[in-house]
Every structure is written in structure tokens, then in C-alpha cells.
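=== RUN LOG ===
request id: a7f3
mode: sequence -> structure
chains: 1
length: 272
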Amino acid sequence: MVRTKDGVLLLDREANGRIWVITMNRPERLNALNGELRKALYESYWEFAHDDEAWVAIVTGTGRAFCTGQDLRERTERDAARLAGRPDPMVQLPEHLVDIFPLSEKLHCWKPMIAAVNGIAVAGGFNQAMQCDVRIAADTAEFGVTEVRWNQGAGWVHRLPQIIGLGNALELVLWGDRRIPAQRAYQWGMVNEVVPAERLLPTAMEWATRMLELAPRSVRNLKEILYRGSWAQPVDAQRFGAVLERNLAGMEDSIEGPRAFAERRPPVFRNR
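=== RESULT ===
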């Protein structure tokens, strides 16, 4: 069943609520992030993070764009209101959703997230894709960091050299008038798989469904170790990883896994 949030976002729960499909739905504005969409999107991330039944999320967009970032028309209206001394017309986020990125850190959400990049993903829309753990792109998708065209900031790009290398990151960010195609993003390691457009959501769903066969606590622990370890000193990362390993002790799933292996059957994990 698909639920809408203010008409600008579609939320579909599949597999008894374990897979969430979060779809940005402003195709007439290339899914630009105005106040309503930003609020609906962040609320959905918050709900996903705190729903015990939710195991994995897919983030995508409608129309020919994944997301084109900040709605600059709304930004112009906000600037005009500020200069005229009028109240800010943008929809304000609840306090617990302000500055929610990076998602994993701000929400302490280590559940896996998949970006199904259906089209243009630039500026803050590129950032939306980067917040996910893997990115599957339609062969028609394009990526860019366009902030230098409009004198805007993009503090989140500090992560890019770790993913695609410094030279590629400099090309992408400093020459912001260019977009790179999905295949080149794949060659850089920014995209995990490129598929025909009609196969995008089925492929993302295959990735998500595979996740339901795996031990959710172990998945989340290992995601957290990978992210935190990427910016920690090696000794600190090792110690942190050892702590998270120990919190699997005593779980029913920790007994079920080896038992299923010994009995030559698929394990049935319940996150207990």
C-alpha cells in the first residue's frame, strides 16, 4: 500500500513492512527539495530508523530526475522575504529533524539503504544518493555537483575523495557545469550497478529482498564498523569493532545462524 506525504512523497511498505520504498514525487520540478518535500523526506527517514519492523529502504524519484537538490525558486522567495523583513516562507522542520544528514550518524540508523537513481541526481540530490549505502543507477541517470554554478555551499563533498578518489572528486565538484553519465559513475566506484531504466526498481528490490535473508543485527553492526572505521584511527576502529562483535552474544539469531548451517538449511532470522 502506498501512502502519500503532502503529495510530494510516496511511501510504500513491502515484505510485511521490512522493505520501505521512499519515492520523491515532484516530477514537475525534477524532485527539487522544497520545504514540503524536505520535511516529508526527513520524516520518512526518521520513521524508518525507528520502526523495528523496517530492515532496508530504497530511495528513488518519479519522472526524469532522482532529485535536483535545493529548490532555487523557493530559495529566491526566501531571500526576498528575508531582505524585506518578512517571515521565512519555507516549511520549518521539527527540531529532531534539523540537520539530519549524515543519516546514519544523526539518526543512529545503521539499517542498509539503497538509492535507485532513476535520472538526474545533482547538488543536494546527489547528496541524497550519497547518503545511501549502495547506488543502483538507470543507464540514463546523470550525476553532478552543481553548487559552484550558483555560489552555493556543499560541505558534504568531503566524503567524495574516499569513494571516487581526489582527482575525480575535484573534476566533479570544481567543474560543476558538467554531469557524468551512469557508466562513468560506475567506473569511478560511485555506483554499484547500472541497469536499463525499466529494470531499475526490480533490481533494487532484488538487492533489498536479499537483505531479508541476512542477520539484521550483524548487517547493522558491520555497516557501523565500516563507516566509523573509515574515519577512525586503526587501533580505535579495531576496538570499536570488537565491542560491536560482543553485542551479538546471547542473541537467538546467533544460535540460529550456526544451527542452520549445520542443518544445511536457510537460517530464519528474527532480530532477537
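=== NOTES ===
The first strand starts at residue 2 and ends at 5.
Residues 216-262 form one domain.
=== END ===
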